[in-house]
UniProtKB/TrEMBL annotation:
The keyword Plastid does not apply. GO terms for molecular function: isomerase activity. The keyword Hydrolase does not apply. Coiled coil: none annotated. This is Sugar phosphate isomerase/epimerase. It comes from Luteolibacter rhizosphaerae. Residues 28-268 form the Xylose isomerase-like TIM barrel domain. Transmembrane segments: none annotated. InterPro entries: Sugar_Epim/Isomerase, Xyl_isomerase-like_sf, Xyl_isomerase-like_TIM-brl. SUPFAM superfamilies: Xylose isomerase-like. It comes from the Bacteria. The lineage of its organism: Bacteria, Pseudomonadati, Verrucomicrobiota, Verrucomicrobiia, Verrucomicrobiales. PANTHER family: 3-DEHYDRO-D-GULOSIDE 4-EPIMERASE-RELATED (PTHR43489:SF7), ISOMERASE (PTHR43489). Keywords: Isomerase.
Length: 270
């Protein structure tokens, strides 16, 4: 299976679960040295780094782009697709559509995580889901026209109250006819919300389009209690063809965590 490692260049996200935070040249070099096929990019926005710069680094180091994250839209700019303010929602949708276009330059999908927002206060769950569905319909069309998928990530209950588990999210995508939107199965979030990680992946099936390979404590696999072999077995069972990406805390040893993650992926894939 294809492997990727997260690379973050957003100062406001420096404490997040991303492996490499170095200057781009160093991060790309380290990703290659640790044996990864691609990088998963978290930038401040679609114009933060020139497309030509990323393309040149990919070519020089023999790496692809697995996905681009949109989290800076929330963390840096306070944008959400389900914000009570129409102006904020418009800004969020514009930000994501531009990130879709940015990622498409490399054949890479954009990820929607924290920018999905949540319901509460003056916004009911039904209203929030209607807003989410409307925005995703627009994004779905844009992704299709750009020739890429779009990745929706169910998060744990402490980060959103929209969708926390894979199957309800998959059913939501299907019910709204979102053909170009797939799911991100983040094993850390799943360890909090799913009763059985392997069964959850099996139930979501072909809707699984990206995987974040993290142990139960959000560190490199082998640091917690996730049954990694069972997870990998189901990914093979459902004929998963996407990336397995390291989005983890590193405890100050980024290269060590990256190598430990790669070792666990290879070991489970044997």
């Amino acid at each position: 299976m294809k492997t990727a490692v997260t690379l973050c260049r957003v100062p406001e996200m420096a404490a997040g679960p991303f492996v490499f935070h170095d200057e781009l040249e160093n991060s790309f070099a380290k990703a290659k040295a640790c044996g990864y096929d691609a990088v998963e990019l978290f930038f401040a926005g679609p114009d933060a780094v020139p497309v030509a710069t990323v393309r040149e680094l990919c070519e020089r180091h023999g790496l692809g782009v697995a996905a681009v994250g949109s989290g800076a839209g929330m963390v840096k700019h306070g944008l959400s697709l389900t914000d009570p303010s129409q102006e904020v929602r418009r800004g969020a949708l514009d930000f994501i559509l531009r990130m879709v276009d940015f990622g498409a330059q490399f054949g890479a999908p954009c990820i929607l995580g924290s920018m999905q927002g949540k319901w509460g206060g003056e916004l009911s769950r039904e209203q929030a889901l209607a807003l989410l569905a409307g925005s995703l319909a627009t994004i779905d069309r844009a992704a299709g026209e750009a020739g890429v998928k779009f990745i929706y990530e169910p998060l744990n209950r402490y980060e959103t109250n929209l969708f926390n588990r894979l199957l309800p999210a998959a059913e939501f995508l299907s019910a709204n006819g979102l053909k170009n939107v797939v799911l991100l199965a983040d094993l850390f979030h799943m360890n909090i919300e799913e009763a059985d990680l392997a069964q959850a992946l099996r139930d979501a099936g072909e809707k699984v389009g990206h995987v974040h390979w993290a142990d139960s404590n959000r560190r490199a696999m082998g640091s917690g209690h996730t049954h990694a072999a069972a997870v990998m077995g189901v990914l093979r069972e459902i004929s998963y063809q996407g990336f397995i990406s390291a989005e983890i805390f590193t405890d100050g040893d980024a290269e060590g965590a990256a190598r430990k993650t790669m070792e666990s992926i290879r070991r489970c894939g044997e």
